[in-house]
Amino acid sequence: MRLLLVEDDNHVAAALSAILARHGFDVTHARSGEEALQALVPEVDGFGVVLLDLGLPDQDGYEVCGKIRKRTSTPVIMVTARSDVRSRIHGLNLGADDYVVKPYDTGELLARIHAVSRRTAHEDATGSTETVVRLGAVRIELPTRQVSVDGSVVQLTRKEFDLLALLAQRPGVVFRREQIISEVWRTSWEGTGRTLEVHVASLRSKLHMPALIETVRGVGYRLVAPTA
């Protein structure tokens, strides 16, 4: 897999590139946001994942993420020292598919890269269906992966859409955390649990319907169908 590493620290980039290369990745290194955007030409980029450090010298990393998402659908994993939930939700709102908080374990990073790439490959292989799910004001179009509330389209990341679509399959039914992680992230890796919480919070925020997804303490989540 080709991977675009956006990192301004040459020493960090060299060490990480060597590790990634040993695990079969073909790494292209961009030292700034502008270099990254120049590398991501939709017609020719061919990258499987973008690993985006937020501490860039020329542009704010969040701004770069937003520009990347407008240019290509390539999955983006943010690398940030900001561990608070609000910062991570902001990144997801801009189109990031996942995040890794510094300092991170190399195994964690590799697991997240593989999880994102596996899920993207699965989406490409599965194709679309003709199913449309309606939940009160919420409309979920599975073929186009589009969600709207009261007719207004809501921009969701891949994982956010998959999470919502999974819960919407059986409104009112509790999905265990382990089941959600397995089906949406396609991994049983325990470290994904915190990512799930952030994605649920992001969905509630984007849909402006905090009561739509209910937390069942100690078990998981369920979608509460709006009443007419």
From TrEMBL:
The modification 4-aspartylphosphate is found at residue 53. One of its GO terms (biological process) is regulation of DNA-templated transcription. SUPFAM superfamilies: CheY-like (SSF52172). Residues 130-225 form the OmpR/PhoB-type domain. Keywords: DNA-binding, Phosphoprotein, Transcription, Transcription regulation, Two-component regulatory system. InterPro entries: CheY-like_superfamily (IPR011006), OmpR/PhoB-type_DNA-bd (IPR001867), Sig_transdc_resp-reg_receiver (IPR001789), WalR-like (IPR039420), WH-like_DNA-bd_sf (IPR036388). One of its GO terms (cellular component) is cytosol. Residues 2-117 form the Response regulatory domain. It comes from Streptomyces tendae. Pfam families: Response_reg, Trans_reg_C. This is Sensory transduction protein RegX3. The keyword Transmembrane helix does not apply. PROSITE patterns: OMPR_PHOB, RESPONSE_REGULATORY.
